[in-house]
Amino acid sequence: MPAGPLYAQPHQFEPLLPRAEVREGLLAKAHDLQLQGLRTGGRAHHSVMDAISPLLRAVNSYYTNKIEGQHTLPREVEAALNNDYSPDADVRRRQRLALAHMQTERWAEQNFESTPWRELFAPDVIAALHRHLFAQLPEEERRLKDGTVMEPGAFRLKDVAVGRHLAPAAASVPAFLQRMHEVYSGVREGELAVVAVACAHHRLAWVHPFADGNGRIARLHSHLLLYRMGLTGGVWSPLRGLARSHARYDERLDGADAPREGDLDGRGNLSERQLVAFCDYFLDICIDQARFMRDMLDLDRVQERIRACLSFESTRADSAIKLEAEHPLYLMFVSGQLERGVFKRMTGLPARTAERLLSGLLNRGLVVSPTPKGKLGFGIPLDALRFYFPRLWPEAEADVG
Predict the structure, then answer these.
(1) Residue 1 burial by Cβ neighbours in a 10 Å radius (0-12, 13-18, 19+)
(2) Dihedral-angle region of residue 153 (phi above 0 means left; psi in -120 to 50 means alpha; beta otherwise)
(3) Distance in angstroms (rounded) separating the CA atoms of residues 400 and 49
(4) Structural domain ending residue among the three candidates 296, 330, 350
(5) Does 349 score more than 90 pLDDT?
(6) Does one domain contain both 305 and 219?
(7) Residue 15 near residue 267 (C-beta atoms within 8 A)
(8) What's the whole-number mean pLDDT along residues 98-115?
(9) N or C: which end of the chain has fewer CB within 10 A?
(10) How far apart are the C-alpha atoms of 341 and 73, rounded to whole Å?
């Protein structure tokens, strides 16, 4: 453990927000993010947006695991969703972690749906995220390197160092988290609230409140905050961007750990300049991810991608899928579910051919239905990801060949 006195007083991780005179650029980016968030919605029917959300949860779980050096193959994530776990103990543990992240992300969005976003900075919320995530793992998979078993939701009882960073004394963790809650929950809605999300991401990681899983919880917490502030619509998250710039992410997190760098570097114990640099990076990531999904949901491009997917599927051996499914699929993307008879008539094919086409689409997961005779909805199987949302999850595209 690095030498030096332990942080024991909450004032030692000030500033929690940059001063007004140095945050103009951050506020401009926060404004841009708010606009991008508004533009992302309304490009597909809500039923399709609901179908995208579980896919995004799989993407997020993959990338947050990758940041921790514990990622699974996309097919392994898909297998875990079908309760098909690897016989290899390490792969099985990673599969469970991936699935646990997806479950906690969904639980958090639903559980805190009516909680004012300001209250999401509360220590109890942070502890609840940790508890829900790690309670899904068996005891043996929560065993730490020192042989102890991590208790889900419990703040750490030991002092720790993370690289060069000496985290606050274990006994002071609740006080540091309470200070975060006081400051960030007092921020008014608007651009500064978005900046507060970025600041909180670093400061939560800096406090390192748990024996393990701190990075995962900081990312889940940021995801939840942005979701509850209405910025993501459930179709984007910063996790993908953080993982795809992992080296920069680590560099900015480490930089913001630094102490004040002279009289021009704010008035707190930690570097204001480095906190601004981290927030600048974090907001860039968010804007990039929001823009990416906005482009992915562009209706003209979606129709082209549906056609490309059908063209590929039609070349499979013994495939009943035909290009005539393009228009009903596009209509479902834009307007929602269709009756089976309407779908078949829209293809313009003879009844038997249309029935075989529909059966083929259902078998491939390109069309979904809750019952054998129920309405039809737009499906997004892993195999279609490369067509519908190219570059969203390149590893999955490679995994399906």
Answers:
(1) exposed
(2) left
(3) 23
(4) 296
(5) yes
(6) no
(7) yes
(8) 96
(9) C
(10) 39
Burial class (CB in 10 A: 0-12, 13-18, 19+), 314: middle
Domain boundaries, position 365: 299-399
1 secondary structure, DSSP code: -
CATH code of the domain in which 156 resides: 1.10.3290.10
pLDDT tens track for 1-44: 555 567 889 999 999 999 999 999 999 999 999 998 767 755 67
- Max Cα–Cα distance, the chain, nearest Å: 79
- Looking at residue 376, the DSSP 8-state letter turns out to be B
356 shares a domain with 258: no
In this structure, the answer to whether residues 249 and 386 fall within a common structural domain is no
Write the DSSP symbol of residue 338.
Answer: B
> Do 152 and 252 fall within a single domain?
yes
Alpha carbon distance 64, 102 (integer Å)? 11
Rounded Cα distance, 14 and 141, in Å = 36
Unique residue bearing structure tokens 């200070």: 179
pTM of the model: 0.92
